[in-house]
Predict the structure of 2598_t:CDS:1.
Amino acid sequence: MSTPTIIATENLAEEMESWGLHHATYWSSDLNSWGSVSDWDVYFIDKTPGCTKDEAHRSLSLELNILLKKLSDRSRYYSKASALKKALENSDNDSANILLWKKHLKELESIAISDRVHRVCIVFDLTKQEIGRAEEQISEKSKKHKASTKECEISSSSSRSKSFNVDSKSKRNKDDEKAKRK
């Protein structure tokens, strides 16, 4: 076991990070700002949106264990960390903490619903856009089809008139030949 450390005020956050604390900036702040378990939870929720109570309390427990190992048991920091550890163990009975997490869960539900509604709106908008594109493609194909149909009709009618002309000429030629023979 390592020798407990007495906190030096210079580069406190760096020193605490070297201990393995993930939230050294929280602990290196003024001792009075450490507050309660609920204060930690508010801090943790801010740093880790969408977290659960278990995640916040597990993180706090790990951080406090490190602090209690590294701090001198005669320091005010140690006393505060020890008091927080006891408060954490009783947090399930802390009405303020229970209320905080109920409120946080409602906010998460609201965010989740909002996200789902937003996703549905996005999907709806994308579907509308896809339908619009499909309608444009159908319209373009329809125009092309109509144009090609007209070309076919024109081509067909001109070939009919040509064949009619050819047929008429050949009939006239036959009639002329018959008339000459007579």
